Amino acid sequence: MKKDKAVVVFSGGQDSTTCLFWALERFEEVVAVTFNYNQRHKLEIECAQNIANELGIEHHILDMSLLNQLAPNALTRKDIEVKDGENGELPSTFVPGRNLLFISFAGVLASQVGAKHIVTGVCETDFSGYPDCRDVFIKSLNVTLNLSMDKEFVIHTPLMWLDKAETWQMADNLNALDFVREKTLTCYNGIIADGCGECPACKLRKRGLDQYLSTREEL
């Protein structure tokens, strides 16, 4: 794969930034693509731009504002509270069709730039109940993309079976732990690095980091 080209679905968050470093280690050329769907925090796009610029990576920002019109939720509407799903319901942060559309358009971009590989940071272990983060969905979409464009894309999900502590470990193994910790945006309240500490994303991130750092200290 070292001579191949990859497109990374990139939000500027912990998971996608870790995947970006993962791709840089494995592929000769890496292109990042970020989607603007009028998400709650424009800082997310700025964060992705800054990271791509610092790493010297070709970066595309695609307009997906139609998704905002179709999918009102806590990530597209400031008046909707961020909260976990209860009694089998999906979290208020679930954006219907987001990964389906993002990975599909990443495939279109990959076909234009001559990339065979598509990398995304979806994860079934810590997937928060999102159905479009499941391994079965990714495998199904991989087949569909290949059939739709008569290509042989390979969708990579480096984090699929990792919990947050193991994701931090991967970043550390890639010599990127401090970079990911200090320069990424995971917080639902739009605070870079360690975030607000109160929203579900921040709590998950911090719990994983604390768990990993305590394990590393023991070693």
UniProtKB/TrEMBL annotation:
Record GO biological process = tRNA queuosine(34) biosynthetic process
What reactions does this protein catalyze?
Answer: 7-carboxy-7-carbaguanine + NH4(+) + 2 ATP = 7-cyano-7-carbaguanine + 2 AMP + 2 diphosphate + 2 H(+)
Entry cofactors:
Zn(2+)
User: What EC designation does it have?
Assistant: 6.3.4.20
Q: Which residues bind Zn(2+)?
A: C187, C196, C199, C202
Q: Which InterPro entries match?
A: QueC, Rossmann-like_a/b/a_fold
- Metabolic or biological pathway, per its Swiss-Prot or TrEMBL entry: Purine metabolism; 7-cyano-7-deazaguanine biosynthesis
User: What GO molecular function annotations does the UniProt record carry, in alphabetical order?
Assistant: ATP binding; ligase activity, forming carbon-nitrogen bonds; zinc ion binding
Going by the record, the broad EC class of this enzyme is ligase
Q: How is the cofactor bound?
A: Binds 1 zinc ion per subunit.
- Keyword Ligase, does the record have it? yes
Q: What is this protein called?
A: 7-cyano-7-deazaguanine synthase
Source organism lineage? Bacteria, Bacillati, Bacillota, Bacilli, Bacillales
Q: Which gene is the coding source of this polypeptide chain?
A: queC
